[in-house]
Every structure is written in C-alpha cells, then in structure tokens.
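Field log, afternoon session.

UNIT: design team B
ACTIVITY: writing a sequence onto a fixed backbone
BACKBONE:
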C-alpha cells in the first residue's frame, strides 16, 4: 500500500474510530430494546437488544480493515498501485457512509426523531455520486469495480465499462438523492429502481462491448 493510499485509509480509520466511540458513549442512554429495522413507510417493524448497537458501531472498523486487507490477497494486486487514490477514496466514502448510518441508528435508539429513509437516501445518493466520479480510475481487480465475465476478460472492455458506469453511478446517485425528498413509500421504489438500473446497465454494456470486440 503506497503512501497516498495509506493516507486515505488512515482517514477512514479515524472516521471509524469516531463512530465506534460515539456508539460506545451513547450505549448507556439506550433502552433495553432498540429499533433494528424500518419498513418502506419509515416505521419501525423490528426491535432487538441494545447490545446490537455496539456491534453496529464496530462495523465501520471492520470494513476499514477488510478493505485494507483485500489488496494483499487479490491476484491482481498490481492494479491497486495504479488506482491507489481511487480505492482509498472509495474506502473513505464507504466507511463514512456506514459510520453516519450507525450514528443515525443510535439517535433513533435514543428516542430522537430521525427520518431514517431520508437519511439513507441522502447518504447513498452522495456515496454513488462521489464514487461515480472516480470509477474510470479503477483498474482490473477481483474485489473492486464492475466485475463481470466480460470486463475481466478484456481490459479495454473494463476501461470502457467503468467510464460508462461512472456516468450511470452519478445519475443513480442523483435519483436516490432526490428520492429522499419524497414520501417513504415512493422513495423506496425509486431507490430500488435506481439500484437495479445501476447494476444491470453497466453489466449489459460490458457484454455488448465485449461481443463487439469478439465479432470484429
């Protein structure tokens, strides 16, 4: 892991530590049963032990360590030197998003009025918008990027798919962000449509691009 990549992971680790500390601090103010799941209307439909909040608070740390470890076991480890900055930014964005979710869940457990669907829509929307801006920098690997049989078979298809996927991710992020201003029921369906579209479109594009190259 080069110096630039390491600096992003240090930031991710700091964010994860802050989230863990906030969750540990707030644990004492939680009731025995806390909300664990919300339905599409934004209503709590499942409760659980407050001990779950501690596990949730440690999740960002686990994700940080996992993402720092993956390059070491990826057969295409040399790619991480080429996209070190983008991968580090991805790690920071993902860890920050999860950290925000844990703190919001903590506030909800403490009885604060929090619009969970809205916060999730805004957080996911911003995550995909920022990730979309760096997708074109991702090089072929087994753990990060748009991994389909066709992108993994052709570096040129990988490159073009990630350029296309970056635009798709930005549009998907904007749609999800806007959904946060709608009623929870409408927001849920719009988010799911955006996620499905954001997954299927790059995959189809990679197939069509690869077939075009094979049939030349």
């Amino acid at each position: 892991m080069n110096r630039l990549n390491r600096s992003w992971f240090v930031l991710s680790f700091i964010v994860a530590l802050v989230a863990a500390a906030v969750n540990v601090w707030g644990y004492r103010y939680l009731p025995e049963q806390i909300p664990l799941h919300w339905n599409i209307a934004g209503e709590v439909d499942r409760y659980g032990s407050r001990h779950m909040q501690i596990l949730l608070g440690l999740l960002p740390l686990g994700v940080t360590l996992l993402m720092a470890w993956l390059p070491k076991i990826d057969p295409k480890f040399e790619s991480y030197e080429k996209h070190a900055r983008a991968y580090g930014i991805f790690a920071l964005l993902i860890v920050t998003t999860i950290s925000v979710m844990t703190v919001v869940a903590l506030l909800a457990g403490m009885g604060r009025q929090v619009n969970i669907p809205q916060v999730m829509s805004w957080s996911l929307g911003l995550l995909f918008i920022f990730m979309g801006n760096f997708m074109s920098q991702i090089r072929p690997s087994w753990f990060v990027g748009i991994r389909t049989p066709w992108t993994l078979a052709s570096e040129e298809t990988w490159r073009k798919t990630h350029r296309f996927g970056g635009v798709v991710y930005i549009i998907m992020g904007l749609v999800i962000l806007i959904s946060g201003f709608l009623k929870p029921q409408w927001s849920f369906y719009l988010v799911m449509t955006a996620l499905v579209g954001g997954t299927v479109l790059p995959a189809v594009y990679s197939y069509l691009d690869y077939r075009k190259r094979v049939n030349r």
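LOG NOTE: Residues 118 and 180 are 4 Å apart (CA to CA).
NEXT ACTIVITY: expression trials, pending approval
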